[in-house]
């Protein structure tokens, strides 16, 4: 047993807030992180209880967050060390000490570490504290507070901010006349929760919408209307909520087998659901027109659905007034609504 390390752990547990408050500059922050990392390694090696390890990890992440803010506020020199400015003789003239800016390497910080710390620092305070509380809760199934999980949360938030800015810049979609369409086909821009695989997140590809905003939409459905709506497996419950909010009644669904695995937690997703719901009195396709409930087609570019669905809907409901919501392309015989057309 290392008595010095044991004493440091006790002091950290009993006086963490005071110790974190002492981080006033980059050098102090780096020193604190190095010490806490060493305590984490020691605690794991000596098989200390999970609560103690998570306490140390929490202080490590909090110190990284503080250091990230300090790094963001500091202007660094991006040039090579000691190069200075070129003079008229063809050599280099050293910068006066007062003009020199610090470099990350002066503090032993890599660009990757700097980026990680600043990304964690960018997490809004309420969200950061909520994440800490969830992991530290007595009934939490998460065994450790990892830097990568908080880094991914920060990345996700930043990406959402960028996507929201993009959405604000996109032209507003045309206003649709309400109560007109007999058939509505849509692939809602579902918003996903924070993900450890956020570099593959759907928001990389297009602006998304939270479920509350989707539910508040006024859909242009006629009194008698059929809805075909795409949903992924993690969004099944929200899809049911949305169907009800839009005034439809769920009937059934088909499964699109993409023939290629994607990402996922419990399963690696290889399918999507095509939900079917109706409003009023709508008849299903004639028996001889009905298709199998499993559609097998290899997935292509992100979010593109099988074109065969258009053909099926057109053959099943030839006289229906049809609209595609959240469309990215136009199609003859259809109205298209969306800000990416």
General description of the model:
The protein is of the alpha/beta class and 341 residues long. The protein has 2 domains: 3-82 and 97-160, no CATH class; 181-337, 3-Layer(aba) Sandwich (Rossmann fold), CATH 3.40.50. Helix content is 39%, strand content 14%. It has 9 helices and 9 strands. It has helices spanning 3-21, 26-45, 50-73, 111-121, 125-136, 147-169, 211-216, 236-245, 308-316; strands at residues 85-86, 92-93, 181-186, 221-231, 249-257, 271-279, 294-296, 322-325, 335-337. A 7-stranded mixed beta sheet has the order 7-5-6-4-3-8-9. A two-stranded antiparallel sheet has the order 1-2. α3 crosses α4. The longest helix is centred in the N-terminal third of the chain and has 24 residues, at 50-73. It is elongated, with a radius of gyration of 28 Å. The N and C termini lie far apart (66 Å).
Summarize the structure.
Helices cover 39% and strands 14% of the residues. With 341 residues, it is an alpha/beta fold. About 6% of the residues have low confidence.
